[in-house]
From TrEMBL:
This is 2-hydroxyacyl-CoA lyase. Residues 90-212 form the Thiamine pyrophosphate enzyme TPP-binding domain. Pfam families: TPP_enzyme_C, TPP_enzyme_N. Its cofactor is thiamine diphosphate.
Length: 233
């Protein structure tokens, strides 16, 4: 069961744990976090994943994940609303236990990391050995290098001169992970990437984040077959 508890549903989470159901407290109910995690369990196991949220805004935040699960036919149960303080039982699905020898590796861009970056605290809290690889090009689609950023700052207010798709150059996302006790690696070369990945995969006790800096002007590799990148819309 994934979710964020509040006064209305704290007892539900406690009752679930008492019944032997694992509860993973997330930092955000939205599609990219708690509800999406529950949907992923449904996709991987074929059994419903469970998401627990508070009433009102909590349930609204879960709508994105519910819509995504519905579109993909992934089984998920969202529990929201209020509960009596003396409630002792709760119905929920149990996620499949992690199998020894298997790891979760998440590859995402620096823009995507901005949506769910605080979940590294969740990983460190539960000692989930997830390996995150952030492909950092300093922007949404593309950014600018550090020197160009400094020159733009001389031109005036960055809110007026910086490209809307740009993010802070060479942001230290790896230090976000280390701040919570996980492993963080700043990667600039292929050899550094290989070494950091080997170290991360050998550690079964802590999550890791590889902050891979690439050329901000790098473009998508030309695909041999157009259907690999063609939109279905």
């Amino acid at each position: 069961m994934f979710g964020i508890v509040g006064v209305p549903v704290i007892e539900v989470a406690m009752a679930a744990q008492a019944a032997g159901i694992k509860y993973v407290g997330m930092r955000n109910e939205q599609a990219v976090n708690a509800c999406y995690a529950a949907s992923a369990v449904g996709y991987m196991t074929g059994r419903p994943g469970a998401c627990l949220v508070v009433s009102g805004p909590g349930l609204i935040h879960a709508l994105g994940g519910m819509a995504n699960a519905n579109m993909n036919c992934w089984p998920v149960i969202v529990i929201g609303g209020s509960s009596d303080r003396n409630q002792e039982t709760a119905a929920a699905a149990v996620e499949r236990s992690r199998e020894k020898g298997r790891r979760v590796v998440c590859v995402e861009g620096d823009s995507a990391f901005g949506f769910s970056g605080m979940e590294v605290e969740t990983m460190c809290r539960y000692k989930l050995p997830v390996v995150i690889i952030v492909v950092n090009n300093n922007g949404i689609y593309s950014g600018v290098d550090a020197e160009t950023w400094k020159e733009m700052a001389k031109l005036g207010d960055l809110t007026s001169v910086a490209p809307p798709v740009s993010l802070l150059p060479e942001a230290r996302y790896d230090e976000v992970m280390t701040a919570f006790g996980g492993r963080g690696f700043l990667v600039r070369t292929v050899e550094e990437l290989r070494s950091a990945l080997q170290t991360s995969l050998s550690d079964w006790e802590n999550p890791s984040l590889l902050n891979v800096l690439i050329d901000p002007s790098s473009d998508r590799k030309q695909q041999e077959f157009p259907w690999l990148t063609r939109s279905n819309l």
